[in-house]
């Protein structure tokens, strides 16, 4: 844990040193919104829930008579719960996504530089410079993978479970029995889990897209130089980049963080929804 914390600090400093952080103002705004989530959620729960029943639930069955004490108990419990999930997981997802976007910014900058360079100037020395800078980016990506491999797995698992929970609530139970607190809780939980899943898979899954653009630009420029200068004595450095195995973020080497995984998750949730509906229909038929 201490090693990863130190590695995270080092990675952030390295990215800050080269001024590669992307969307700084937007990220700060999102952090502020996420930090406001626990108090807003706890207040909404106090206002929409059956305060007496909720206080008894949080007091493990003991009666809490004073209304102010009931409100404080419900508010503090929901506040603490919301800090753990989903606020903490959202902040970790935001940090992971920010570091990924910063690396993508560096890759895009390299790609644009390759596209601008004339073929005559794209000699072995320039190609070697591009490869060295790409290696430094690869080191950053490997550090991000090492830091967030385990957290990303638990984040995906937690948010996937939250989506399943919300679907189960709405599909299995009768909506007439839902109270204001249950509806508010389900909507906030479901929307947050859905957005968090999309963000972590879409952003982390964008790495192959950016790397492929760099490879194509590098190959085309090197190939064009070969055709123009007709020089076969230069080293073929393009192989060092093109033939390198594709790097993909993973969650504990169990789940590959690809954009195609979004469809797989949707398919799983859809299957789960059908099973819940069938179970509900079977229960109604048995009655």
Provide a descriptive summary of the structure in words.
With 287 residues, this protein is mainly α. The chain has 9 helices and 2 strands. The protein has helices spanning 2-17, 24-48, 51-58, 67-116, 124-172, 180-204, 207-229, 238-242, 260-286, and strands at residues 250-251, 255-256. Strand 1 and strand 2 (255-256) form a beta hairpin. Helix 1 (2-17) crosses helix 5 (124-172) and helix 4 runs parallel beside helix 6. It is elongated and about 85 Å long. The termini are far apart.
SSE layout:
Elements: H1 2-17, H2 24-48, H3 51-58, H4 67-116, H5 124-172, H6 180-204, H7 207-229, H8 238-242, E1 250-251, E2 255-256, H9 260-286
Helix pairs in contact: 1-5, 2-4, 2-6, 3-4, 4-5, 4-6, 4-7, 5-6, 5-9
The rounded distance between the terminal residues' Cα atoms is: 53 Å
Low-confidence stretches: none
Q: Determine the structural class based on helices, strands and strand pairing.
A: mainly alpha
Helicity range of the residues? Answer: over 70%
The biggest sheet amounts to: 2 strands, antiparallel
| Number of beta-strand segments | 2
Q: What Rg do the Cα atoms give?
A: 25 Å
What fraction strand?
Answer: under 5%
Keywords: Membrane, Transmembrane, Transmembrane helix
Protein name: Gustatory receptor
Organism: Nephila pilipes
């Amino acid at each position: 844990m201490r090693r990863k914390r130190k590695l995270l600090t080092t990675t952030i400093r390295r990215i800050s040193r080269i001024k590669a952080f992307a969307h700084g103002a937007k990220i700060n705004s999102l952090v502020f919104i996420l930090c406001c989530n626990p108090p807003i959620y706890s207040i909404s729960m106090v206002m929409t829930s059956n305060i007496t029943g909720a206080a008894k639930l949080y007091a493990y069955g003991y009666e809490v008579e004073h209304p102010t004490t009931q409100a404080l108990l419900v508010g503090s419990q929901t506040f603490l719960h919301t800090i753990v999930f989903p606020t903490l997981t959202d902040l970790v997802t935001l940090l992971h996504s920010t570091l990924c976007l910063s690396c993508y910014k560096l890759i895009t900058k390299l790609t644009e530089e390759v596209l601008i360079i004339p073929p005559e100037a794209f000699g072995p020395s320039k190609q070697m410079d591009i490869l060295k800078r790409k290696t430094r980016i690869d080191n950053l990506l490997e550090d991000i993978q090492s830091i967030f491999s385990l957290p990303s797995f638990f984040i995906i698992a937690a948010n996937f479970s939250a989506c399943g929970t919300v679907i189960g609530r709405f599909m299995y139970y009768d909506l007439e029995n839902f109270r204001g607190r249950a509806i508010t809780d389900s909507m906030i939980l479901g929307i947050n889990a859905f957005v968090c899943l999309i963000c972590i898979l879409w952003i982390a899954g964008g790495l192959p897209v950016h790397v492929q653009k760099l490879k194509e630009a590098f190959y085309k420029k090197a190939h064009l130089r070969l055709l123009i200068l007709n020089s076969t004595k230069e080293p073929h450095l393009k192989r060092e980049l093109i033939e390198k195995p594709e790097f993909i973020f993973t969650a504990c080497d169990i789940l590959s963080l690809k954009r195609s995984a979004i469809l797989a998750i949707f398919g799983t949730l859809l299957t789960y929804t059908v099973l819940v509906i069938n179970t509900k229909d079977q229960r109604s038929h048995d009655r």
